[in-house]
Structure formats: structure tokens, C-alpha cells
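call fold(seq) -> C-alpha cells
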Amino acid sequence: MSRITTTLDEAQRELINSALPLSGATSINSFVAEAALERARALIEAEKRLYPNEDQAKRFFEALENPPEPSEFLKDALKQYLGSDA
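ret:
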């Protein structure tokens, strides 16, 4: 097991103490640990939705840095969007 130490000001401590009965936590330590784990899971899940794997992330950034030439379909769509004078 690891230990994490943090310092709370009075307002932060009171806020967390008020939330303890609502969360089911029995101590500030357990509340803070659970909140940190929940946040960590959410961040990791959000990252996975953006880049499901390393290969896809590399391909995405490669396409941003070196975009392919626009296709004829895309060129025609742009002309249509801008009007025939484009």
C-alpha cells in the first residue's frame, strides 16, 4: 500500500466532512482516495475514447502533420459550397 498526504484548509475540510455521509466514506482519507480513483478512471477512459490505441493515435497525428491531398470529391464540394467562382 502507498500513502498520500495532502493539506486541506478549513473550508475544504468542512466541505469534505459534509460530503462524507453522502458518499458512504468513513474518513476523509477514504473519501479523497475514492475521489482520486474516480477521477483517474474518468481521465483514462476519456483518453481511450480519443485514442483507442497507440497506432491510431500515431496515425491521427501523422495525418494532422502531413494531410493528404484533397480528393476530387472534396474539391468539388468546396467549389459548390463557395459558389462556382471558387
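The CA atoms of residues 25 and 31 lie 5 Å apart.
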